[in-house]
Design brief:
The protein is mostly helical. The chain has helices at residues 3-7, 39-53, 57-70, 98-111, 118-132, 165-173, 179-186, 201-204, 218-227, 251-257, 264-267, 273-283, 289-305, and strands at residues 11-13, 16-18, 137-138, 193-195, 237-239.
């Protein structure tokens, strides 16, 4: 095999996407193999311990990494506490999993002080969360440094559940992600929940018409209206994937195809010609075969996202505590 082909080598074996340990924009798999050899296993065991107590934490960790990367790049800025910090912005309300990151960080600081960044812990924890939920695993390129800025004012770049596809496309494109990445990453909604508050308008007064969103499957609409009454408090939690909310699989795409998407931004992916084709491919009709394809494409999209505007080398810092700058 030629060297050029070796560099682009991608292999799916037993649910693990193998990425060569090459430097990619200052990141490489196995970055801590000498400086903190047990770093990845410590993160894994910490995520697993929390997951075993509450499997819904997996979706929380995945969302935490995503929200981190879309503001200031993947630099742990979402973890900073403070009145005007990034995590206080409205799009970040309901984020969870912070305690898992802090737990892993405290163990790593005991073993390898000042070595493993909070940004890398997030990237590793997101991978482990997917794997524990029955999804694929992959080699995570590491070597990120932690950022020194965390501002709620910058969170407007985050995708919103209200966004039409052109807005979603623009927000993803601004981070170097294309339509294929967009649909693939939104597939993370195969696990996780949302509040009635974020989609109830679709059930009763969509676009101020006084009627429900016509794209919602009628049988599903009745179920959602029962779960989320018009005058309820809006805090009831609803699975983003009605069929298997704790299993990382392709049923989310089947739901979008069938008009059973919860968030407007998810359901709209079926109505745009470009994103429609990608959803259709993942939803498929051959059980398992196309699920395998999603298991291959999702790690590639995650690795691409996890490189957004990373700080490496002497940039940023390695925080001692993830919630505050050194």
């Amino acid at each position: 095999m030629e060297a050029a082909h070796l560099i682009n080598f991608r292999l799916l074996v037993w649910g693990i996407v193998i990425i060569p340990a090459l430097s990619q924009g200052g990141l490489k798999t196995g970055f801590y193999s000498s400086s903190c050899p047990k770093a990845e296993s410590i993160v894994r065991s910490t995520v697993e311990a929390h997951f075993n107590k509450n499997p819904t934490v997996a979706a929380g960790l995945l969302r935490l990494h995503f929200h981190d990367c879309f503001v200031q790049g993947c630099d742990g800025s979402i973890l900073i506490a403070g009145a005007s910090a990034e995590k206080t912005a409205r799009p970040n309300s309901g984020l969870r999993g912070f305690e898992v990151v802090e737990d892993a960080k405290s163990q790593l600081e005991s073993m390898c002080p000042g070595v493993v960044s909070c940004a890398d812990i997030l990237a590793l924890a997101a991978r482990d969360a997917v794997d524990l939920s029955g999804g694929p695993s992959w080699g995570v390129p590491t070597g990120r440094r932690d950022g020194r800025i965390s501002s709620s004012a910058e969170a407007s770049s985050l995708p919103s559940p209200l966004d039409p596809v052109p807005t979603q496309r623009q927000k993803f494109a601004s981070k170097g992600l294309d339509d294929h990445d967009l649909v693939t990453l939104v597939g993370a909604h195969t696990i996780g929940q949302t509040d009635c508050l974020f989609f109830r308008y679709r059930l009763y007064n969509f676009t101020s018409t006084g009627n429900p969103d016509p794209s919602i499957n009628q049988v599903f609409l009745a179920q959602l209206q029962s779960t989320c009454p018009k005058d309820g408090d809006g805090t009831k939690r609803v699975a983003l994937d009605k069929d298997s909310q704790l299993k990382f699989d392709t049923s989310f795409f089947k739901n979008v195809r069938d008009g059973n998407g919860i968030l407007e931004s998810d359901q709209r992916l079926w109505g745009d010609p470009s994103t429609h084709r990608i959803v259709e491919n993942y939803a498929g009709s051959i059980r398992g075969l196309l699920g395998l394809r999603f298991d291959f494409e999702f790690p590639k999209a995650m690795i691409k996202m996890s490189r957004i505007e990373v700080k490496t080398g002497t940039q940023g810092e390695i925080r001692k505590i993830c919630s505050k700058f050194n």
